[in-house]
Amino acid sequence: MTPTWHARKVQIHKGTINEIRQHIPDFAREPFRTETGGTNQHLDIIVRKPLKKNQGFLFPSDDETHIPIATVSKQYSLVQHHDVLDALETVLRENNIDAESLETELKLTEYGERMWFSFILPSYGFDSNVSTYGFVPEDGYPVVLKVNVLNSVDKTTALEIMLSWYRLVCANGMIYGEDVDFRKIHLSGLLNYDVIKEFLRMQLERERFSRQKERFGKWYATKVIIMKLTETKPGPGQIERWLDTVVSKKWSINAAARIYHIAKTGYDGKFVNHTRKTNKVTFQELTLESQSSDQIPGTFAPVRNAYDISQVLSWIAGQRGTIQGQLAWLMDIPNLMEALLKTEKPITLGLSGQSCNNKQCVK
User: Fold this and answer.
1) I want to staple 240 with a disulfide (CB 3.0 to 4.6 A). Which of 210, 212, 234, 302 is the partner?
2) pLDDT-derived band at 15, boundaries 50, 70, 90
3) CA distances from 352 to 80, 126, 248, 252, 342 (A)
4) Residue 93 in 3-state DSSP?
């Protein structure tokens, strides 16, 4: 599935920073005027510069011409994607990190006006061989730190720098806050590349991730008790109640049904409502129409602990069809998990007698 970004197609590229740069265009601002010379005194126009040099063709392609992107106010500060990458490379170099060795990913809209650039930071994650961070994932799948940079030249996205935890086995992750987010709107006088550099330098020089590592440790230590269902109504503290009262309201009953199915089986599915056409329908009243043929990488079914549940949430968020939708749900995950952990203990997951056939199940 190829995502869109505010209805624009998105291209995804992977490689080194230099390889990624080849796909990123430059932009310029020009007066907003008509062919007859009439000029708007309050607005400019942002244009994409040619990706290729004109080879003398009578009718040059779009890649060889200036393409209009958006109109902006005179106060708008045009932030080039390349300049943001330059600032990142500077900070990495000052911290003795070889930028060309990093695994990078670029999500770029059709004309390059919106960019989501991300890379994994070496030595800033934790894995089963490192026990000094307070959280040791026993499954052996490393959890690493990613830097995510969003920028646009058409006013749809502010320049944003966000940190996220990223699980390598399944590309699951979540974006978190707590004084580690950078956000600047594109207005003259508010944006300074030195500010970008100082922000990143501060994040890389200090150990600022202890809260997140402690959070993962808490989730991993919070076991899920598998209960054999004797009634359909969910009881206090059960995952089912959380899905019905929190997740369904925040994300949708369809998302809740998919989470429940993955938590039990390890497979995603498509659900439809054949029972009642009402807003009061619960996720358990939806009908499984089809199930994916492959098990989701890195899942444990049924889930063993709260950490496993967070990975299911991350999978669901990452499958959304729009970039803005993915970002919004990834940022929701910590709060959704906190709501689950506040429920009455123990946290339980109900399985039917037919599927409750493993050592985790209790009557």
Assistant:
1) 234
2) very high
3) 55, 36, 22, 24, 25
4) helix
